[in-house]
Automatic annotation (TrEMBL):
One of its GO terms (molecular function) is identical protein binding. It catalyses: N(2)-acetyl-L-ornithine + 2-oxoglutarate = N-acetyl-L-glutamate 5-semialdehyde + L-glutamate. It is an enzyme of class 2 (transferase). This is Acetylornithine aminotransferase. It is found in: Cytoplasm. It comes from the Bacteria. The lineage of its organism: Bacteria, Bacillati, Actinomycetota, Actinomycetes, Bifidobacteriales.
Length: 431
């Protein structure tokens, strides 16, 4: 870490960050602060400075920090059995899978696979889609068929493991690892003609490609700067998948678990009450800060394609994580946090546009997954400025700040954040 950067920090922060960079691989850059403890939407660093946290561990800490119900659930489960392996089952894991199927409104016969992160949820979804692809006419290897394809979106983000990365668009993070998983293609997000053309490439003859096994998309592209896909496009994509026997995989790692004002973004009202996916992936908020991810496979027929040995992970469905997730989901339900996400999100977007800061051009997003578009590309300087003034946000694009507070965020927290954002100087240097 540069000496001048350390000079701006408190002595404990500087001491620990100096050590951090000596022993950690430099994949995350230098952390902004060394954090100590939190309560609700607030967190304190090792020098005792307090911050209002509108990043929430990147849309993870649904209940904020140290929520008493979450702490109780995790402590009680830790005192019983933290981990048992998948040679055994546990009650929390079974209850959690049932609850997720119920919240997703998935039909009878739907099944859950648990992993430990969003990327792993997507790995599982892509593997299931590959098995499904082999069942499509024209794709069967047994008859010399052409391998089925998976279509992903430009600007989409699905994780950094090799499979998930193969479906992740950003060339700067993907291309140096190529060749990756074959037969994954990108189409322009929100362009239904492009998706139509991609399906149409399926066919016999030398130039025809294999059938499409699945289309994978986020309904709001979070990492790309909180870019929502239009309802019309999503409905058309669902229809094209139906017409071509392809699966629709909706990645709800960032949008799911109440963050966008419904349990899952595919349930939102402008999709005519919902576009039903074939596979939904989840992670981030599900266990309120305990690492967990996974997928819900809709219906019995698709779910039956995974058989013993198809997939797995040592920690998958671990009871400690399952207890944390059950406490998270129960609290979201009991405390009405899905509607809080909707109401506080509206308050946040309205307040930002009304605050009169000429740096703010527009605000986009749903519920508590939002981004402010800036008049010039100074997002990093703006992020650092608000941090110095006690607010944590994230420079998600050179000209956009992402705001993803915990679902427990209060009206006063939102007012406080707006009052800090309103004062960001307009003449900050560009990134
Ligand atoms: C939509 C989406 N999918 C997948 C991932 C990967 O999740 P993880 O970092 O837990 O592997 C992310 C992470 O930001 C994400 O936003």
């Amino acid at each position: 870490m540069a000496t001048e950067q350390l000079e701006n920090l408190g002595s404990e922060d500087a001491k620990w960050l100096g050590k951090y960079s000596q022993v950690h691989m430099n994949v995350f850059g230098t952390p902004l602060r060394v954090m100590d403890y939190g309560k609700g939407a607030h967190i304190w660093d090792v020098d005792g400075n307090e911050y209002l946290d509108f990043l929430a561990g990147i849309a993870v800490n649904a209940l904020g920090y140290a929520h008493p119900k979450w702490v109780k659930a995790i402590s009680e489960q830790a005192a019983k059995a933290a981990h048992v392996s998948n040679y055994f089952a546990t009650e929390p894991q079974i209850k959690l899978a049932s609850k997720l199927i119920e919240l997703a409104g998935a039909p009878e016969g739907s099944h859950v696979y648990f992993g430990n992160s969003g990327a792993e949820g997507n790995e599982a979804a892509l593997k299931l889609a590959k098995l499904y692809g082999r069942t499509l006419p024209g794709a069967s290897p047994a008859i010399g068929g052409k391998p089925a394809r998976i279509i992903a979106m430009t600007h989409g983000f699905h994780g950094r493991t090799m499979g998930a990365l193969s479906a992740t668009w950003k060339p700067a993070i993907r291309e140096v690892f190529e060749p990756l998983v074959p037969n994954i293609e990108f189409v322009e997000a929100s362009d239904d003609a492009a998706l139509h053309d991609a399906f149409a490439e399926t066919g016999p003859g030398k130039y025809g490609k294999g059938p499409v096994a699945a289309v994978i998309m986020e309904l709001i592209q979070g990492e790309a700067g909180v870019r929502p896909l239009g309802a019309d496009y999503v409905k058309k994509a669902r229809q094209m998948c139906d017409d071509n026997n392809a699966l629709l995989i909706i990645d709800e790692v960032q949008t799911g678990i109440g963050r966008t004002g419904s349990w899952f973004a595919f349930q939102r009202e402008d999709l005519a009450g919902g576009v039903v996916p074939d596979i939904v992936t989840f992670a981030k908020g599900v266990a309120g800060g305990f690492p967990m991810g996974g997928m819900i496979s809709f219906g019995a027929k698709l779910s039956a394609l995974f058989t013993p040995g198809s997939h797995g992970s040592t920690f998958a469905g671990n009871p400690l994580g399952a207890a944390a997730a059950l406490a998270t989901l129960e609290t979201i339900e009991e405390d009405g946090l899905v509607s809080n996400a909707e109401a506080r999100g509206q308050q946040l977007r309205d307040g930002i546009m009304a605050c009169g800061n000429p740096l703010f051009v527009s605000v986009r997003g749903r519920g508590l997954l939002d981004a402010v578009e800036l008049a010039h590309p100074c997002a990093h300087a703006a992020m650092n400025w608000v941090l110095e003034h006690g607010l944590i946000v994230n420079a998600v694009a050179p000209d956009a700040l992402r705001l993803v507070p915990p679902l427990v965020v209060t009206e006063q927290d939102i007012d406080q954040a707006i009052s800090i954002l309103a004062k960001i100087p307009t003449d900050l240097p560009n990134d």
